[in-house]
Amino acid sequence: MNEEQLRGNWNQIKGKLKQKYGELTEDDLQYAEGKSDELLGRLQEKTGKAKSELIKEIESF
Predict the structure, then answer these.
(1) Tens of pLDDT along 10-57?
(2) What is this structure's pTM?
C-alpha cells in the first residue's frame, strides 16, 4: 500500500485499527500527510508489533 492509497482509505483503516486495538486513541491515529513513519512508530509503541507486521496488517484491511 503506498502513501496515496493510505490517505484515500485512511478513515476506514483508522476505524478498523480502533476496533482491533481498543487502547489506541484518536490522537494516536491522527494522520498528517507525510507522517506515515510517525504513525507506524505510534502503532508500534501501543501494540508492541514490528513495523513490517503492522504494514502487512494495514494492507490486509
Answers:
(1) 888 888 888 998 888 888 887 765 688 888 888 899 899 998 998 888
(2) 0.65
Query: What is the DSSP-derived secondary structure letter of residue 22?
Result: T
- How far, in whole angstroms, is CA 54 from its chain's centroid? 7
Question: Which residue in the block uniquely carries the three cell numbers 486495538?
Answer: 21
**Are 18 and 29 within 8 A, CB to CB?**
yes
Q: CA-CA-CA-CA torsion for 55, 49, 46, 59, nearest 10 degrees?
A: 20
7-10-12 Cα angle (round to 5): 150
Residue 9's CB: how many other CB atoms inside 10 A? 14
